[in-house]
Design a protein that fits this description.
The structure holds 2 protein chains of 2 kinds. By secondary structure, chain A is mainly α. Chain A contains 11 helices and 2 strands. The mean pLDDT of chain A is 92. Chain B has 11 helices and 14 strands. Classes of the chains: A mainly alpha, B alpha/beta. The structure holds adenosine-5'-diphosphate and magnesium ion (MG).
Chain lengths: 257, 314
């Protein structure tokens, strides 16, 4: 009885979340497509042709997986951050709080919504990249697992951000000052083996390095880090962030006075 | 008959130390039409917030149909439908989606939810707007949308926090009619108001709250019976001498209007005979309908009640 009710509640949240980003597709789906096309043109076509090979592949093929992963990360994060914060701000989050929806369903619903957007944008970007280069697939399962776990990780991050946020500024601070730098330094545009030893070491603590490399392995079969390390990092992040999100919602931080 | 709601020893201290509720006890019977009456800032919304788990309580117990909100929160929640004081729906979603989603949170299947949404949107005169975004509605429509939303899971108890604030008279009456109809179907209704006539028109039982304390909790009839003064307004023929009324408390408003307070022990007839002796004719008479207001003043002191007088008299 109660598990059937939870399933319907979960579907409702998911439905609402997907409908939200589809309704405002000009703000949610078009910008990443444009950004990534620019990256392909500038870094892939114009500059990439002068760079030559990276990790044994031409530069365009090398950066495609990283660019897809970059759009998955930003979109799953910002979807949940803006949607949950706006639900707080308009107070329609109360619709869920008064209803018999367990907290894990709220978390799962929003994270699921963020994953849907991240993965959909990932697919759009992948299709666009086909205009510029051929894509080879080394291991489809690694690709699927990496994209699912990465989008879940960042959707959880976006949720936690939104729980703490008190204004719309607060949900752009983390993406601007943390997410973007970590992504650029996360081996999207270069192999970290090119870095001096010290910076290679520093890169090891950047979680995005693991995600980008696991994802790239799925396409090209090359990676700067081991897959086991990559999936352990992803699993560890998801568990930790999930526990944090659950604790915050259960305590009602930013939700109940 | 079972109790729909039992509150005991409820306290709330907000962050910053303000004590909004100072130990409240309340019982609402199943099927009741119950008013929580009090001036602004009395703690009505805080009480509703605790019942509906939007506000964390500091101490005390709340049970909904016997389910303690600390132990069986989800069971307790499923009995309740809330119409909050502030608009709290997604302004960018269509009415239909707002309703169907809300039903989903309570485990109502989408197909069932669509039928119910149609039913309530039609009953509440919102059907034409079903595909409009929430922000397109007028204030009264938004309020009705929130009533429809609160009914989507067919709750046993409907809680309305100042439902007619900012709603014009015409709509207010049709809303009252709608609530009476729901109550006659067996739904327990709890409403908060600082609009006194509303409690009198609708409710069978009433609690009066002031500064976080319940100062009165009784049925409407005995509450009204407690009031032993009625005020009548007399319209007098112009030109005569100023009326004088022995033994009555009265106020001369202008040269042809006088207000007289009549205690239970006094008779209106005596007013007439005294005026006749002074050769003053009474052209018309009306009851100044402010019994509850006076009661309010006598219970909680005049300061708090002044702003709540709908006619602003005196
Ligand atoms: N989130 C809050 N933080 C601090 N004080 C609050 C908060 N919400 C309400 N209060 C205070 O608690 C008192 C009761 O408020 P409320 O329950 O909204 O009154 P009512 O609904 O009867 O008008 C008021 O003095 C109000 O200022
Ligand atoms: Mg209030």
């Amino acid at each position: 009885m109660s598990s059937a009710r939870n399933m319907i509640a979960l579907k409702s949240i998911l439905h609402k979340e997907v409908h939200r980003f589809m309704r405002i597709w000009v703000q949610t789906l078009v910008p990443p497509a444009i950004t990534i096309s620019l990256y392909f043109v500038i870094f892939g076509e114009l500059i990439g042709s002068r760079i030559g090979q990276m990790g044994g592949f031409d530069y365009m093929s090398f950066i495609v997986p990283g660019l897809i992963m970059m759009s998955v990360i930003t979109n799953s994060y910002s979807n949940v951050a803006s949607s949950f914060f706006s639900a707080k701000w308009q107070r329609n989050v109360e619709e869920m709080l008064v209803a018999p929806v367990p907290n894990w369903v709220i978390v799962a619903g929003y994270v699921g919504g963020g994953m849907c957007r991240g993965i959909l944008v990932g697919c759009i970007v992948t299709l666009i990249s086909l205009l510029f280069t051929e894509i080879q697939i080394h291991n489809i399962w690694v690709i699927i697992a990496t994209v699912a776990l990465t989008s879940a990780t960042f959707a959880l991050g976006g949720l936690i951000n939104a729980i703490f946020a008190g204004s719309f500024d607060d949900i752009s601070i983390i993406p601007t000052f943390i997410l973007t730098p970590l992504t650029y330094l996360g081996g999207v545009f270069y192999s970290i083996t090119l870095l001096p030893d010290f910076w290679q070491g520093v890169s090891q603590i950047n979680p995005i390095v693991y995600m980008v490399n696991a994802f790239r392995y799925g396409f090209l079969g090359i990676s700067d880090v081991s897959l086991i390390a990559a999936f352990s990092v992803l699993g560890g992040f998801i568990i930790t962030l999930f526990v944090i999100a659950m604790t915050l919602i259960t305590k009602g931080i930013g939700l109940r006075s | 008959m079972q109790n729909a709601l039992e509150i005991s020893g409820l306290k709330k201290v907000y962050k910053g130390g303000f004590q909004a509720l100072k130990g409240i006890d309340l019982t609402v019977k199943q099927g009741d039409f119950f008013a929580l009456l009090g001036p602004n800032g009395a703690g009505k919304s805080t009480t509703i917030g605790v019942i509906t788990s939007l506000v964390n309580k500091t101490a005390g117990e709340v049970k909904v149909f016997g389910h303690d909100i600390d132990q069986e929160l989800e069971a307790a929640k499923s009995y309740l439908g809330l119409v909050p004081q502030e608009f709290n729906f997604n302004q960018f979603e269509s009415l239909m989606r707002i309703l169907v989603n809300q039903a989903g949170y309570y485990g109502v299947e989408r197909s069932v939810a669509h039928e119910r949404a149609e039913k309530y949107l039609k009953q509440l005169d919102l059907w034409d707007k079903r595909n409009d975004a929430g922000r397109m509605l007028s204030g009264g429509m938004k309020r009705r949308l929130m009533i429809a939303r609160a009914l989507m899971h067919e709750p046993q108890v409907l809680i309305l926090d100042e439902p007619t604030a900012g709603v014009d008279i015409e709509l207010r009456r049709s809303m009252w009619e709608f609530l009476r109809e729901l109550n006659s179907q067996g739904i327990t209704i709890i409403l908060t108001t600082h609009y006194l006539e509303e409690a009198e028109m609708l409710c069978r039982n009433i609690a009066i709250i002031d500064s976080g304390v319940i100062v009165e909790n009784t049925d409407m009839k005995s509450l009204l019976a407690k009031l032993d003064v009625e005020t009548i307004v007399l319209d007098l023929s112009v030109g005569g001498a100023e009326p004088k009324l022995a033994d009555f408390c009265y106020r001369i408003i202008d040269d042809h209007t006088v207000e007289v307070d009549i205690k239970k022990s006094q008779r209106i007839n005596d007013v007439f005979s005294q005026l006749t002796e002074q050769n003053i004719n009474v052209l018309s008479l009306r009851n100044k309908s402010n019994r509850l207001e006076e009661l309010f003043v006598s219970i909680i002191g005049s300061g708090a009640a002044n702003e709540n007088k709908p006619n602003g008299a005196q």
